[in-house]
Amino acid sequence: xxxxxxxxxxxxxxxxxxxxxxxxxxxxxxxxxxxxxxxxxxxxxxxxxxxxxxxxxxxxxxxxxxxxxxxxxxxxxxxxxxxxxxxxxxxxxxxxxxxxxxxxxxxxxxxxxxxxxxxxxxxxxxxxxxxxxxxxxxxxxxxxxxxxxxxxxxxxxxxxxxxxxxxxxxxxxxxxxxxxxxxxxxxxxxxxxxxxxxxxxxxxxxxxxxxxxxxxxxxxxxxxxxxxxxxxxxxxxxxxxxxxxxxxxxxxxxxxxxxxxxxxxxxxxxxxxxxxxxxx
Length: 280
Prior knowledge:
By secondary structure, the chain is mainly α. Helix content is 66%, strand content 0%. The protein has 13 helices and no strands. It comes from Craspedostauros australis.
């Protein structure tokens, strides 16, 4: 929502509660909503506001204001704000907050147990940043280690897609296509189903190699994508399938007489026929 409106609401609720109202009591859900409004700004100003509110709440809780106690959802909102609006140090700032959560959780504060979303947001904070690919891969390893004791935190499709995004979006990444392909292979080995975004990033990474090997491996990845669609067609259209065809068109990967091209045209026709094209 509107961050200015959110601040007005924050002031109103807190002042009403301090004045003795028993009907309006700020809590973790309330503060998380305010923090998310800052995150949606996707600006450095939004980051600063989110960080300041979290710091203020921590201080209030230490002063005995139980309603201000920070929790996982609040920390996630701040990490999300950082991922969206911070600069080149976004990943490091996000990981520092994760470190705080891990320390406090280890000391017995169950309200700050890192979640899958926490780790995913930290990885996203490394996307598009120089050197972010290695740190994102290390964060994946750290997440898997934590998940070995907390199954609900196990990496999902969003996690792996974010790591691939960090690899292909890192201007200083070495052999990004090989590393992106390795993450895709890991997903399959762990029975995490890739989607169109997974394949589109890997295909484009191979095509950016701008050599015969890269093009051949891009075509192979596209073939694997088509086989996966065919074998799982009963599940319905693939999420982000259109992103694959966008890459295919941009790099002119297919000939007009190919089976994959025919499939693409069929999908485009179905999307423009007036029927809703919904993804699961």
